[in-house]
Write a structure and sequence with these properties.
The complex is a heterodimer of chains A (about 110) and B (about 900). Chain A is α+β, with helices and mostly antiparallel strands. Chain A has four helices and three strands. Chain A has a three-stranded antiparallel sheet. In chain B, helix 1 crosses helix 2. Classes of the chains: A alpha+beta (about 110), B alpha+beta (about 900).
């Protein structure tokens, strides 16, 4: 569960970026995406199903990712999501934006260089 | 393994938030939960714990359903539609404008400057446009005004300028011959003494054939217009009043119709009242009486004694060319049946009947000044808008920092650009509103000062043009404000914000171009004003040929049956002048039919005994003035040879005449004019007759300096050849003016003069009393006010340009503080810095001057006809203007330059 309100706000702002980033190298399904985010953030950012799936569906509706059912022998079929070209562009743009915003905030808030 | 499909299906509501892929969503969520469950169990978690954890993944199934539905609904197409609907919503725009107002209020300096600049520029422009609309484009208030034509007798070989008058016999001639007109009319200015509240007052009116009102298609507000029967002698004692006179004399009483009114002692019956806004011919006309032509006026004797206006309205479908053809035919027929003498005369003068649209004639004198002033107003507008552009540019560059942050936080460029446009629209709207208010005030003030002009109210056209200009300016300002935003990358905005020194090269170039344009417009404005000023000085320096300072004049009209006899008029003049001369302080007094610069004009042909005109030379037409003894002494026209009129010339049989030096030089270049004889034919037949033993010659007894009686620039068309003066006793005038030279203040003596005159005849008012210097001012009125307005525009324009130049340099200094600091640190001196900045500013001023000079030379011709004694490319004036502009530019640059020189070097260098 999200801890404080501040963290919640930050998470909302970065959600799409986080999700898109996980699909950069290969297509994944929802659980895989959530696990990777949790691992790479060392447990700081955790998405539950109720939070993750609306994001996935929104990204898909926008055309940033596209989903496909994949059937593996002996397993329930799963929906895998991959980045579209538009999605790649969006990922790059969001990365840029966040990079600059972070440095601006650092300067403005008097933070030291990380 | 729990059945996750069933679980999800049981919990995920379908009703509240319909999902179009319900079964697929169920399958996907179920697979998700199952994968997690399996992973947990394989990791060692117990079944119950794993189930609990998995279930906790979805705290609220309805919420999830809603979120998924909302997420799925955001299809690109849907997004676009809802966005469009958003834009059209009123609440959306109200919010945008509220935000805009808030932003502008915080930035008071910018907002106030922008609004005031716009108001001044748009207001002046709107006022001029209204004046142009009223006076140039719609000078004639009648239906289909372009179909009303004016006919006039033209003598191109004698008179340089086109005439606009006709003679009374022409009326019936033209009625007979010109069938292309559906209606024709003759009219003239008139005046009468009417008792208002018991006080006899001289009032202006018009006399016209009854057909005039039909031609103008005017319906009276009350009563009726004249019938044709009332245009015949005996039936013409009817009068139509203006709305204003009706209110004044009858208190707006409807029963005024049918009552009688005394005009010049005779009784007239009121038959109609005109509408309040009616105006034709003389805007100050208060009454209208019908013109009934006497047999004398209809006879050939009256031909070519032009003093009337002749107009006609074309039939539907007829053209002015057809009128010209019919006039040519009419002139030819008249020529045929004229005596050979007269034919020779007609050929010599080049006589023909001309026709042109009445509107063209009405605007002729006004077109020049108004066009000039419109050009000036436009120049000021350009300067003002340029200023607005530069400060909008500066402001948006200063805001780049926080605008960039907004972009980063999710606003789109379009949102921000839209916001900037909203701000532009707000400023333009308030500015335009202020401008229209200012224009209305200016027009009201102008009306109060010159009530004789046609009524000037801010009309729909001026408002529409102002609104159109405001919209264009708003768009322009929006574009200018948004340009840094659209041309700069977000990274630049974020990193450098407003501290960009060398960035924004296009912005700087744009700015310099704007300031240079301002300088150009200022130069043209200054040059125009300087030329007008010099012209006016030249006009005033012309020797008028009479004194102006201590001479007072006043008009009288001996109306009524009492003065029908010439003797009575002579007696009145003698007694009145005697009384006036007895007043203390009166140096000299006389009377004349042509009071200098009063607008009255009478011309006559002069034939000199023994003078043989060169072949093809046209007859000499000169001003004819009837004067009493004492006139020349009073008006101060110097005597060059011979003598003035005296008591010998108060006889009706006198054959003396005084001529001015121009006539003397023309006829007798040897200088021996005294004792020579001249003759003035008063009718066309007399004109054509060969001088013989029966000719009533007059003898020249004196030669005086030529006087500019009709105006300061009386090189005009009338009386070009000079003036001749005849003793008034010969043909006592009923309408004349007193000319009195006094040692006292003219205003002191007025009352005494009035009572002296009233002593002789108490019923006749002395009216239009002014000194000759006042008349000169009036005659120059149009020229003077044009010059003042041009100077006002130039002043405003130069001030705004100076402001623009100052602003640009101040901003430059603020931008390049760092660079300046470095320069100072490495050895430059403050003086060099000042020089550097002055150079920047002056280079723009010089560029503006050069371009302005080029523009002025190219378009100088436009101004030429309005100037006097100075050419539009007069090098001295151009140099003077250039110097003035450079001086102003230096002043504007001084403050920022000095500030630059005093930059704190240490502070600059130690700032990171």
């Amino acid at each position: 569960m999200a801890a404080s309100t501040d963290e919640h706000t930050l998470k909302k702002g970065t959600a799409e970026l986080l999700v898109l980033a996980q699909l950069e190298d290969q297509p994944r399904h929802g659980y895989d995406i959530a696990v990777r985010i949790e691992q790479r953030s060392k447990g700081a950012v955790v998405f539950n199903v109720a939070s993750l799936y609306p994001i996935l569906y929104r990204l898909e509706a926008q055309g940033s990712i596209s989903g496909r059912w994949v059937e593996r022998a002996g397993q329930r079929r799963r929906r895998f999501y991959r980045l579209t070209p538009a999605g790649r562009a969006k990922l790059a743009q969001q990365r840029r934006t966040w990079r600059m915003f972070m440095s601006a905030v650092q300067r403005a808030a008097g933070l030291e260089y990380a | 393994m729990p059945d996750f499909i069933a679980y999800v299906r049981r919990n995920l509501p379908r009703r509240h938030a319909p999902l179009d892929r319900y079964d697929e969503v169920v399958e996907e969520l179920a697979a998700e939960l199952e994968t997690r469950y399996t992973a947990l169990v394989e990791g060692g978690t117990s079944d119950e714990d794993a189930w609990r954890i998995v279930v906790a993944q979805v705290p609220s199934w309805p919420a999830l359903a809603r979120d998924l539905a909302a997420a799925g609904e955001r299809r690109p197409a849907a997004t676009r539609v809802s966005r469009l609907r958003r834009y059209l919503a009123i609440e959306h725009w109200t919010r945008e404008f509220a935000v805009g107002i808030r932003v502008l209020r915080k930035d008071r300096g910018f907002t106030a400057t922008a609004i005031v600049t716009l108001a001044v520029c748009l207001g002046a422009h709107a006022a001029i446009v209204t004046a142009i609309n009223a006076m140039l484009l719609h000078p004639l208030q009648a239906p289909e005004p372009d179909r009303v034509l004016l006919m006039a007798n033209q003598y191109p070989r004698v008179e340089a300028r086109r005439g606009w008058l006709s003679a009374t016999p022409d009326y019936e001639d033209r009625l007979r011959h010109l069938t292309v007109f559906e209606e024709q009319a003759f009219y003239n200015y008139s005046a009468a003494t009417i008792a208002s509240d018991g006080v006899p007052t001289r009032m202006r009116g018009m006399i016209a054939t009854p057909s005039l009102f039909r031609l103008l298609r005017v319906n009276p507000a009350r009563g009726r217009i004249f019938t044709d029967a009332e245009g015949t002698t005996g039936n013409d004692t009817r009068v139509i009043l203006s709305d204003g006179l009706w209110r004044e004399l009858f208190g707006a009483d409807p029963s005024a119709i049918g009552r009688t009114l005394r005009l010049d002692g005779s009784e007239y019956t009121v038959v109609g009242i005109l509408p309040r806004d009616f105006s034709f011919g003389d805007p100050a006309a208060r009454f209208w009486i019908p013109l009934a032509l006497t047999p004398k006026q209809r006879s050939d004797e009256a031909r070519h004694r032009n003093g009337w206006f002749s107009i006609g309205r074309l039939r539907p479908g007829a053209t002015i060319e057809q009128v010209r053809d019919q006039l040519k035919a009419m002139d030819a027929a008249d020529f045929e049946r004229s005596a050979p003498r007269l034919q020779a005369l007609l050929t010599k003068t080049g006589f023909y009947t001309g026709v042109e649209p009445l509107q063209d004639v009405l605007v002729r004198d006004v077109r020049g000044p108004l066009s000039l002033l419109w050009g000036a107003a436009l120049a000021v507008l350009v300067i003002g808008v340029a200023n607005l552009g530069t400060i909008a540019l500066a402001r948006s560059r200063a805001r780049l920092g926080d605008l960039g942050t907004r972009l980063a936080l999710g606003a789109s460029r379009f949102d921000i650009v839209r916001q900037l446009f909203v701000e532009g629209v707000l400023v333009a709207a308030v500015g335009a509103g202020g401008g229209l208010a200012l224009a209305a005030w200016m027009l009201a003030a102008l009306q109060a000062v010159q009530p004789a002009t046609t009524s000037l109210h801010l009309d729909a056209a001026a408002v529409a043009i102002t609104v159109g200009l405001a919209v264009s300016i708003a768009v322009l300002m929006g574009l200018v404000s948004a340009s840094p935003l659209l041309t700069t990358r977000l990274s630049t905005m974020m990193h450098e914000g407003h501290r960009s020194g060398t960035r924004g090269r296009t912005a700087r170039a744009l700015w310099r171009a704007l300031v240079a344009a301002q300088m150009t417009c200022s130069f043209t404005l200054l040059l125009g004003s300087a030329l007008l000023y010099v012209s006016l000085r030249n006009v005033l320096a012309v020797d008028p040929g009479f004194r102006t300072g201590d001479v007072i004049t006043g008009f009288m009209s001996l109306s009524g049956p009492r003065y029908a006899d010439g003797d009575a008029a002579r007696a009145f003049l003698r007694r009145a002048l005697e009384s006036i001369r007895e007043l203390p302080g009166v140096v000299a007094a006389g009377a004349t039919t042509i009071v200098p610069m009063s607008g009255s004009v009478q011309t006559g042909v002069v034939i000199a005994d023994g003078y043989v005109p060169a072949p093809g030379e046209s007859p000499v037409a000169a001003l004819r003035s009837l004067v009493t003894p004492g006139y020349f002494e009073a008006v101060g026209t110097p005597l060059l040879r011979g003598r003035y009129f005296d008591a010998h010339d108060e006889d009706s049989t006198s054959r003396s005449v005084v001529i001015d030096e121009r006539l003397a030089r023309r006829f007798w270049p040897d200088g021996m004019a005294i004792g020579r004889r001249i003759f003035f034919p008063m009718t066309a037949t007399e004109l054509a007759a060969r001088p013989g033993p029966n000719t009533p010659w007059s003898t020249v007894i004196g030669v005086v300096r030529s006087a500019r009686l009709t105006g300061p620039l009386a090189e005009g068309p009338i009386g070009t050849s000079g003036t001749y003066y005849v003793p008034s006793a010969v043909s006592p005038p009923r309408d004349f003016g007193f000319v009195i030279r006094t040692e006292r203040e003219p205003s002191e003596i007025v009352r005494e003069v009035r009572s002296a005159v009233a002593h002789v005849d108490g019923e006749l008012p002395l009216f239009d009393i002014r000194t000759l210097s006042e008349r000169t001012e009036l005659a120059l009125g149009s020229r003077t006010s044009t010059m003042h307005l041009a100077m006002l525009f130039a002043g405003v324009g130069v001030f705004l340009s100076a402001l623009g130049l100052y602003g640009m340099l101040a901003y430059l200094v603020a931008q390049r503080t760092r660079e300046i600091g470095i320069r100072l640190a490495v050895g430059s001196t403050p003086r060099a810095i000042v020089g550097l900045l002055l150079g920047e500013g002056l280079s723009l001023a010089v560029a503006g001057t050069l371009i302005g000079a080029a523009v002025s030379l190219a378009f100088g011709q436009v101004l030429a006809s309005y100037l006097y004694g100075v050419a539009p490319w007069d090098p001295f004036v151009i140099l003077l203007t250039a110097t003035m502009l450079t001086g102003v530019a230096i002043l504007a640059c001084i403050v920022p330059a000095r500030r630059a020189a005093h930059v704190d070097v240490m502070r600059i260098l130690t700032a990171s």
